[in-house]
Amino acid sequence: MARLVIVSNRVPDPGETSGPRAGGLAVGLADALVPGSLWFGWSGKTAEHTSTTAKLTEADGLTYATIDLGESDYRAFYLGFSNGTLWPLFHMMPGHAEFDRGDYVIYREVNQAFAAALLPLLKPDDLIWIHDYQLLGVAAALRAAGVTNRIGFFLHIPFPAPALFEVLPPAKALLEAMLAHDVIGFQTGYDRAHFLGALSSGLGMIAHEGTVIYRQRKVSCIVNPIGIDADGFSRMAASIARRIDARRMIESLAGRALMIGVDRLDYTKGLPERFDAYQRFLQHYPEHRRQISFLQIAAPSREEVERYRTLREELNHKAGAINGQYSDFDWVPLRYMTRTAPRSMVAGLYRLARIGLVTPLRDGMNLVAKEYIAAQNPDNPGVLILSRFAGAASGLPEAMLVNPFDVDGVAEAISLALTMPLDERQARYKALIARVREVSAAAYSRAFTARLADVSVQPPPRVLKTAI
Ligand code: ADQ
Question: Is any ligand 1 atom within 6 A of the Cβ of residue 340?
């Protein structure tokens, strides 16, 4: 069987890949990472220069190969073009995007450096699976170096509408770079349609059943939504809800319903709008005021980027205003924590929460929505309020779908969720948990690797002389 090589911007610390704290990609790929697999990427550390050779570590039968990033490369590649340009633009928020040609040049160079450090580690039959927007150009750089392996790519974030994508000065170069893969995976049908639209308007290419031919090579564009290990998460939530800290939480609620939000502190997650909606709820539904407690846990993220710092200040201000206006001697309407909570604690809190409030302005998938469902007690499940602009919404139609920009609409949804009868909550939960179980982490990685393994030999990519 061919060896699987995962390439991602961050490689998890091998010490933390098993156990309850492991999150994100490590969980999504757990099934695919059989002994013998290789995981290549950035160590998360900076040095004077970007490494030219990878450092290898073995753990649990897997090989982790990491490089460090030079301090100035980190700024231009990671904070600059990846998170200052691509991240906002791909989330269709061009107002937050900045473009600097110098950062883009470094982005290209770092993608080439990834490819150069990976090259000596590759075997002829390896299946290479590259992840996310930071690494759009790695496959093109590998092809330019003569690599003929099957290479797949998965985009974890949305792909923007073609008219927005075209705003990017190197839009065409990035599309051509993406066509160096054999298989390109998207979270939803919308993202794939946007990508195919961009290929059509940018390069005049027409897809047939999701497949395009580029320089005599077939590129298959597939929809392959990411999921979670629902049963594992459910077990973790049930066991933690019986623990002492859960009991403290229950006592502090004093019979009030808990509403929970768990997010990275990121402007795409719609936190200011969420706080506004909660304030509107308290204002318009005074009869519910003392019956609810909203816990928002927000993990600080990308704090070197100015926009993220101003977001944090804005949220502190809004949280203070809500509690200042509505708190009572024995009731605080909003508990706002800016930290990363242990995964097991998050699972337990989801289970205690009568409402899961997941309202990103735009999101590739949003695993919090799936985790909240998996954590519920089937006998007395809570209600998921979900943004229709999260990728998860297209696979979870029984959630209460809301428009996160509509503050009054979200306030109304909170009121409806709070008073929803048990039989309706159970009916929605039953449908949702079946969907979360079916579109699991294991199904995600199995489907993608099977599709990649199926690719037949393609002509050598000799014409791709340069990377992006
Ligand atoms: P993210 O934008 O990071 O991921 P998401 O899918 O919600 O978003 O995953 C976040 C993970 O971190 C969840 O497992 C959640 O429990 C955890 N988490 C978030 N805040 C936390 C906190 N304060 N404390 C503890 N844990 C916290 C990107 C894309 C998403 C896509 C995923 C996977 O932006 O759209 O769903 O990749 O493809």
Answer: yes
